[in-house]
Write a structure and sequence with these properties.
This protein is an all-alpha fold. The protein contains 15 helices and no strands. The longest helix has about 40 residues. The chain starts with a helix and ends with a helix.
Length: about 300
């Protein structure tokens, strides 16, 4: 538990640095747009490819294919639940952005380390495999849902809009791992180094956006609590109820539930800034859900 709390505090410290820097320097919109493009087009794909290559092989991918399917299922189910609760319970106006924020959690930056702390290396690998399914939903249905630019009656146009560097990196990583392709060490080290800056850059970006908010506004905004209730309580406990009806093993159950109950995804701020111009809404949701996650995590652990 101490490791989990430390990870959360590290996140907050980096966010605070970005917050303070923007307050002093006033980072321009063009600069923030450049940073989001850098993360989505370069550092996040590098991190994805390296994560898949590091510790994976063809046998493991076959063995954990059920986790990829589980990630796909949870991603789609989360969108359906979020759309329903947002529309009929919380009366949310921009239901698409709300559904996106409520459905996708911080499964890599926070979820995978937590699974490692609780279940060891096996849990860590399971978390990464589960995340593949989630990432596929994020960069297909998720991006399509929040972006007006790729919604049209032209199927070819829609498919082109759904193709993104992160999605391509998932496919490339799976191919490399499945066929046990050995890449030059310099390439592996490059992807590791470049991908390694994704988390701090994303945290700084969140800080930039948060600095344009008054903290009082975030705390008093009921919207963020609706996202939090959906993301941290409603969706994970519905998934938990469904999985309890099956004969799924304890580690697999624990990984899926913990990943499902993560706070709003860090990269949602980047994605929504690029595709929907709603980066500040995502940043507020990340801030609130990451704080309350400190209290909901022990509850999830008790039930699994």
């Amino acid at each position: 538990m101490n490791n989990v709390i430390r990870e959360l505090f590290v996140m907050y410290i980096i966010i605070a640095v970005g917050f303070g820097f923007n307050k002093k320097v006033n980072v321009s919109e063009d600069t923030k747009r450049t940073i989001s493009q850098l993360i989505i087009n370069i550092t996040l794909p590098a991190m994805t490819v390296y994560s898949i290559m590091d510790g994976f092989n063809s046998e493991m991918i076959r063995q954990y294919m059920i986790l990829v399917l589980a990630g796909l299922f949870v991603g789609i189910l989360g969108l359906l639940i979020s759309y329903s609760t947002g529309k009929y319970i919380f009366n949310i106006k921009n239901i698409n952005v709300f559904s996106f924020l409520s459905s996708f959690g911080n499964t890599v930056y926070l979820g995978a380390p937590i699974c490692y702390a609780l279940f060891g290396s096996k849990g860590f690998i399971m978390a990464l495999v589960f995340n593949l399914g989630i990432q596929i939903i994020i960069w297909t249905l998720g991006v399509w849902l929040v972006s007006d630019n790729i919604k049209s009656n032209n199927i070819a146009h829609n498919l082109k809009g759904l193709i993104s560097p992160p999605l391509i990196s998932i496919i490339v990583g799976i191919i490399i791992a499945y066929y046990s392709i050995s890449l030059p060490k310099v390439i592996v080290e490059t992807t590791e180094l470049v991908g390694g800056v994704t988390v701090p850059l994303a945290m700084l970006f969140i800080g930039f956006n948060l600095s344009e908010y008054h903290v009082k506004e975030i705390i008093q905004n009921k919207y963020y609590y609706s996202v939090g209730l959906n993301k941290l309580i409603i969706i994970p406990f519905i998934v938990l109820f469904l999985l309890k009806q099956s004969n799924i093993n304890q580690i697999l159950l624990g990984v899926i539930i913990l990943e499902t109950g993560m706070p709003v995804a860090v990269n949602s701020s980047i994605i929504l800034n690029k595709y929907a111009g709603k980066g500040e809404v995502a940043s507020g949701s990340i801030f609130v859900t990451t704080f309350f996650f400190l209290f909901t995590l022990p509850i999830l652990i008790v039930f699994i």
